[in-house]
# Entry
Amino acid sequence: MATIVRCSFCGKTYDMKDIKITAHHADATVFRTPCCNREADDRRWKHDYEIIEPDGTLIKNADGKVVGRWMGGRKVISIQP
Ligand SMILES: [Zn+2]
# Structure
């Protein structure tokens, strides 16, 4: 199954199956992004990319309160009073 992500460097989207892996480390896989050919890796705290969730996926804050949802590949935050 495809995993579509948004590049944090240039803002374009790419499929994780299209990445060019350049190195494997114990804690990370390093690769070149297919969109802008930059070095990125899969350590989540680096935020080199963001996984795009399907439409309708709820977005919750740290307290577990729903603050928005995914639409059209983007986060739509709509905090209800
Ligand atoms: Zn890019």
